[in-house]
Amino acid sequence: MSVLITGSLAFDTITNFPGRFAQQILPEQVHILNVSFLVPTLRREFGGCAGNIAYTLYKLGGTPLVMAALGSSDAADYLQRFESWGLDTSLVLRAQDAYTAQAIIITDLDNNQITAFHPGAMQQAHEMVLPAGRRDIELAIIAPDGRDAMLSHAEQFADAGIPFIFDPGQQLPMFDGAELGRFVDRARWIAVNDYEGRMLCERMGTTLEALSRRPGIDGVVVTLGAEGCDLWQRGERLHVPGVPAGEIVDPTGCGDAFRGALLYGLAKGWTLERCARLGNRVGALKISHRGGQNHPVPSPLADEA
Predict the structure, then answer these.
(1) Is 256 a residue of the active site?
(2) What is the DSSP string of the chain?
(3) What's the sign of the alpha-carbon dihedral 158, 170, 64, 12?
(4) What is the pLDDT at residue 25?
(5) How far, in Å, are 167, 199, 259, 268 from residue 57 at the CA level?
(6) What kind of fold does domain 2-8+47-95+123-300 have according to CATH?
(7) What digits encode the pLDDT tens for the residues 51-95?
(8) Between β-strands 228-233 and 236-241, what pairing exists: parallel, antiparallel or unpaired?
(9) Which residue, 208, 249, 241, 209, is CA-closest to 225?
(10) Within 13 Å, how many C-alpha atoms sit on residue 51's CB side?
(11) Set 108, 167, 230, 256: catalytic member
């Protein structure tokens, strides 16, 4: 059985600023902001939320099925990568007259990040429709994607009876409270970081406790970086401590790595707590490696969670 992953596919241009943004940006002058950062290192990586999530799920031994958009002019490398993993690429759209989404990321010494994102082909992701009668999908995730794609895919998955994680990520500000409520009403799980969790609750006029009590919601997962995560189920909060990283190298894609592990555990029928423990361990591995799809995932890791 497959785990359906929707969200962005992108090429990440990752740079490191050997200083601190806070020392370069004057708060009292932010209205006339004009700064330049010297970035002596530069790498181009496979990225995007869907690609990063699929990578960790695949490395853990799961079967990801990616439903996302690539640009027709630069899709070949990403498609070849998926095919080398043995993935079904039939649901990957090759958007005409578009580039694959591009992210330019600058990380400082405190692991703060400034990102510029060109959506490219992602703006056509809503053209992808889940094929009728597909019986090999056991669960799904709606990760950050084009606005219309996220809305339409939530309706499609709900109509098809596919349980899914709602993971709005950096796209959350695009939706108002009513739209977020429709996502929540159709989702089985919600995954956010602590900042996104506060914004989600503010826009919906609710609390994490109340969200976790809504009919059909089996859990709300709030990631807390190095501190681990909080799990909300039926109004009760459980904290799952973080796992110390061997080295802090690059935070890009840590949340996606966590979600790949979350999907793996849910597909196995694990408790949400066990899924979160695995997610924290994978996140600690990810931050020790550059890029969103370069971290090793030892084969016994899942069984030890």
Answers:
(1) yes
(2) -EEEEES--EEEEEEE-SS-HHHH--GGGGGG--------EEEEEEE-HHHHHHHHHHHHT--EEEE-EEETTS-HHHHHHHHHTT---TT-EEETT-PPEEEEEEE-TTS-EEEEEE-GGGGGGGG--PPTT---EEEEEE-S--HHHHHHHHHHHHHHT--EEE--GGGGGGS-HHHHHHHHHH-SEEEEEHHHHHHHHHHHT--HHHHHHSTT--EEEEE-GGGEEEEEETTEEEEEE----S-----TTHHHHHHHHHHHHHHHT--HHHHHHHHHHHHHHHTTSSSSS-----TTHHHH-
(3) positive
(4) 83
(5) 16, 28, 8, 12
(6) UDP-N-acetylmuramoyl-L-alanine:D-glutamate ligase (3.40.1190)
(7) 999 999 999 999 999 999 999 989 999 999 999 999 999 999 999
(8) antiparallel
(9) 241
(10) 29
(11) 256
Tokens representing 24? 């370069």
**Per the structure block, which two tokens stand in for 58?**
């695949």
Q: Which residue do the tokens 């409520």 mark?
A: 181
pLDDT by residue, tens only, the chain of 305 residues: 899 999 999 998 989 899 999 888 877 777 888 888 899 999 899 999 999 999 999 999 999 999 999 999 899 999 999 999 999 999 999 999 999 999 898 989 987 888 888 999 999 999 999 998 888 999 999 999 999 999 999 999 999 999 999 999 999 999 999 999 999 999 999 999 999 999 999 999 999 999 999 999 999 999 999 999 999 999 999 999 999 999 998 888 999 999 999 999 999 999 999 999 999 999 999 999 988 999 999 876 766 66
Parse the chain into domains and list their residue ranges. Answer: 2-8+47-95+123-300
Backbone angles phi, psi at 10, to 5 degrees: -150, 160
E strand intervals along 159-293: 164-166, 189-193, 219-223, 228-233, 236-241
Structure tokens at 134: 């597909």
Q: What is the pTM of this model?
A: 0.91
Tokens (6 digits) for 284: 């600690």
